Amino acid sequence: MSGLRIRDLRVSFDGFKAVDGVDLDVAPGDIRFLIGPNGAGKTTLVDAVTGLVKASGSVHFGDAELLGRPVHQIARMGVGRTFQTATVFEELTVLQNLDIAAGAGRSPWSLLRRRTSVPTVVSEALETINLTAQRDQLAGTLAHGQKQWLEIGMLLVQDVRLLLLDEPVAGMSHDERDATGALLGVVSRDRTVVVIEHDMDFMRSFARTVTVLHAGKVLSEGSVAQVQADPKVQEVYLGQGTRDA
Amino acid sequence: MTSTVERPVSAPPVAPRRRFVLRGPGVGLAVGAVVLFAVAPVALSDFRLSLLAKYLCIAMVAVGIGLAWGRGGLLTLGQGVFFGLGGYAMAMHMKLADAGPGQMPDFMLLYGQLDALPWWWAPFRSPYFALPATVLLPMLVAFLLGSLVFRRRVRGAYFAILSQALAAALAIFLIGQQGTTGGTNGLTDFQGFFGYDLDDPVNQRMVYFIVAASLLALLLIARQLIRSRYGELLVAVRDSEERVRFLGYNPANVKLVAYVVAAGMAGLAGALFVPAVGIINPALIGIVPSIEFVIGVAVGGRATLLGPVIGAVAVAWARTTLSEEFPAAWTYLQGLLFVLVVAFLPGGLASARVLLRRRSP
């Protein structure tokens, strides 16, 4: 298992510093929650790590430098992500979605033929994300929570070693949140997980470590209890923090 | 700052019960084969059969557009370029074959500006060069162009406009080079097709069968591509290119394959159009014909296998019939047809079946 090491990460858009010198270490097998007010730079940080936006500094996953590589190469190095709004291929079935996610290393020859059986990783992932019964349903017809799970399932069959999840439980019911949290526990057994989340209850239940971002910088870092006790965090979350607590 | 995953501009609207339509092609292909090989040759006069051959050539272009546009979301508004490259490659060979060994084509002597055959004509004397070139040359051009364009993430309307500009450029270039390309007149007055006299109705029927067989072959290729894992991946790229990128694929390569295959199909169509119709000229490959290729596909149903073929043949047939009756009105009718289909039947005629089935209890 590999960990994530970010040093002096900077992203700016037309002079606006969205991420302003972030250092971040996520240990292998950790479930790290990134929290912070809107505009703190959480999603931009994930965008930078996955190659979607240009950034300076360095991002190492294991021994490999990620910055400067195109998106699809970073994905092939074992870094996967989800988006705030679930983006599955709505006009393909659940099975087809997973099969495509599993196939980035396929030879041209096998691409040009039909799928004759369900790959083992795909059927395992279907079990893990609890969508076996929906296998042949179009992904566009799934419930909101199921789409999010399908996205996580796609990361599993893609065999990523680092999962970056952007608000995975937004809009989910209480039961769905608990199921998602349990899923994170399973996933993190042999993978490193980073979660961007606004939901404080969810964070308290399932985070192992927490990093608070504010205005593009790391404000605080540590266990859930440490971060909650930090006066700087309370100040930034004034109102929001007290209400949630 | 959010990470938006944008849909390409040309992404078609959702057709929720697409899988219904996909079941058909096996049966549809078989019926189509019977009609083309058994019914049409018996039922149609020589004249009508050669008209059908012309329509089927246009349908071959449509198969490729159905793949690139319907499945891949690439609005290929410039297929005239590849149709033209294939057509001119074939026409140059036929001109040289008519002229005989060591001779120059008649029109070059007529215009009298040239002392010798231009160097780039010379290889087309050999059928072993010219025949593969009708398909490979368009594919090569598509590969070079696609590599540039897709890697730079040009898509949607920009890609369509670029394709169209290219079709215009090729047509203008050909018109300007009258001495070596026949200019506006193009290449015509062919006597033979690989030794067979093209004036003989029997040989015209042979050309028809070659065209029909080629169309079926292209449909089988397209069918295999659509049903393969690549076909699923192509739809995924069409609907969410960024997402595919995050799965570790380079979407540029996925699109490139569909674009190059579609170009090869258009090239073969152009090559067979020449013996079937007897002419290739800039008016047949510029902007207007390029748009007409796409209209046929839209009318038939771009995302299905047989829709583009049926649409292309129907529109081409309507064009011939209606422009005989009302020469001035066809352009307007064609425009009206396109508007109606886009407004009321975005999935084309192929989706009408699904709509009807949904309404009936």
From TrEMBL, chain A:
- The answer to keyword Metal-binding applying to this record is no
User: Record keywords: Zinc included?
Assistant: no
Keywords (alphabetical) are: ATP-binding, Nucleotide-binding, Transport
Q: Which residues form the ABC transporter domain?
A: 4-240
Q: Which residues form a coiled coil?
A: none
Q: Which Pfam families match?
A: ABC_tran, BCA_ABC_TP_C
PROSITE patterns, per the entry: ABC_TRANSPORTER_2
InterPro entries (alphabetical) = AAA+_ATPase, ABC_AA/LPS_Transport, ABC_transporter-like_ATP-bd, ABC_transptr_urea_ATP-bd_UrtD, BCA_ABC_TP_C, P-loop_NTPase
Signal peptide residues on this chain, from the entry's feature table: none
PANTHER family membership: CONSERVED COMPONENT OF ABC TRANSPORTER FOR NATURAL AMINO ACIDS-RELATED, HIGH-AFFINITY BRANCHED-CHAIN AMINO ACID TRANSPORT ATP-BINDING PROTEIN
Protein known as: ABC transporter ATP-binding protein
